[in-house]
Design brief:
One of its GO terms (biological process) is fatty acid beta-oxidation using acyl-CoA dehydrogenase. GO terms for molecular function: electron transfer activity; flavin adenine dinucleotide binding. Pfam families: ETF, ETF_alpha. The protein has a seven-stranded parallel β-sheet with strand order 7-11-6-1-4-5-12, with helices on both faces. The protein has a five-stranded parallel β-sheet with strand order 14-13-15-16-17. The chain contains nine helices and 17 strands. The protein is of the alpha/beta class and 329 residues long. The mean pLDDT is 93. The radius of gyration is 21 Å and the shape is globular. The longest helix has 17 residues, at 17-33. The structure holds flavin-adenine dinucleotide (FAD).
């Protein structure tokens, strides 16, 4: 039976949220076409997560467990995914469009001789190929793209965060877990990890966060940044930033959201002192609820906001944080 395979990256033992959204869509496509819905997990300990994917409709899960995945290196991941794909022989491989996937999908396409449709916001598939929609030019336009798999190779598709809703499958059973031993010879690795530089410091992962507090130039200084941190703490949010405050050095580059930063799609997005330039909005319009705080009532961010608060963030945030603390208590 034809197979649609979804790759589910794991961080801290938890499956990536965007991957569960993609797996839900893959399950719908499998049901429409009478295909098998499969998944892959590549992690130091893949089996536990592999079992849990049955709830999302994965009938078969290919699990590659190896200590090599403890280090953030691409080469063993590409090797593992190539092994899984050659074993599963899927028609389509679906990925979440994460930073890690962006690093490996091109290499996989080249090794497998497979066409790739990266960073799509919607896709459908039949036996004759994959049709997808890709936001382009800072999401100002949408391009309709299609790919047909050559003989013996799948179509690779990566899906932007927030494009679909992750939903458990009704009546799903335990999946068949197929363990695959990583065949990479560690001595053949051409990459050497010298140092891991991370400013995230144990905070919530931005791309996978369900709540994001994003700071713009209105935040301006330490006092503003402290308010952003407090709002993030009380809401359990990851902190993002506009390019303006990244360039000011107030927030690290990995916090940047937008056309040249990360694409996020949390359930709740606070835009604090952000004007709403198209290049910023391109990275956050998939957010389900957007709360904008800006002292300029004409700021374009209010055009995409679900709720808008017009006012100085130094006056608006302290009572909001207090009220949220009280509500939590
Ligand atoms: C090729 C290219 C790529 C780009 N990529 C990105 C990208 O990936 N991400 C990105 O963010 N930008 C990107 N930019 C930059 C983008 O065009 C904007 O310059 C940037 O997003 C503006 O950031 P900002 O909203 O923080 O600042 P501003 O546009 O200066 O807005 C600051 C806002 O804060 C409000 N404000 C000021 N003080 C307060 C206060 N005390 N309380 C409440 N509100 C206040 C102001 O009313 C204003 O609306 C890119 C630009 C280019 C040309």
């Amino acid at each position: 039976m034809p197979t649609i395979l979804t790759h589910v990256p794991v961080s801290g033992g938890t499956p990536n949220r965007t991957a569960l959204e993609a797996l839900t869509r893959a399950r719908q496509i499998a049901t429409e076409n009478g295909w098998t819905c499969a998944a892959s997990v590549v992690a130091p300990e893949a089996s536990g997560v592999a079992e849990s994917l049955g709830a999302y409709g994965a009938e078969t899960v290919y699990a590659v467990s190896d200590a090599a995945f403890e280090q953030p290196l691409n080469a063993p991941v590409v090797d593992a995914l190539e092994q899984v794909i050659r074993e599963a022989e899927p028609e389509i491989v679906v990925f979440p469009s994460t930073e890690g996937v962006k690093d490996v999908i091109g290499a996989l396409a080249q090794r497998l001789g497979a066409p790739a449709l990266p960073d799509v916001s919607a896709f459908s598939a039949t036996a004759s190929g994959v049709s997808a929609t890709r936001p382009v030019m800072a999401a100002k336009f949408r391009a309709d793209v299609e790919a047909e798999a050559p003989e013996g190779a799948p179509v690779l598709v990566s899906v932007r965060a927030g494009s679909y809703t992750a939903e458990e499958a009704s009546g799903a059973g335990a999946p068949e877990v197929i363990d695959i031993a990583l065949a990479t010879d560690a001595s053949s690795l051409k990459q050497t990890l010298r140092e891991v530089v991370s400013a995230a410091g144990g905070g919530v992962d931005l791309s996978d966060a369900t709540v994001v507090v994003a700071a713009g130039r209105g935040v301006r200084d330490e006092a503003g940044r402290d308010l952003v941190q407090q709002l993030a703490d009380v809401t359990g949010a990851a902190i993002g930033a506009s390019r303006a405050v990244v360039e000011m050095g107030l927030f690290p580059p990995e916090a940047q959201i937008g056309q040249t930063g990360k694409v996020v799609a949390p359930d709740l997005y606070f835009a604090v002192g952000i004007s709403g330039a198209i290049q910023h909005v391109a990275g956050m319009t998939g957010s389900r609820t957007i709360v904008a705080i800006n002292k300029d009532a004409d700021a374009p961010i209010f055009d995409v906001a679900t709720y808008g608060i017009v006012g100085d963030l130094h006056a608006v945030l302290p009572p909001l944080i207090e009220a949220l603390r009280d509500a939590k208590a």
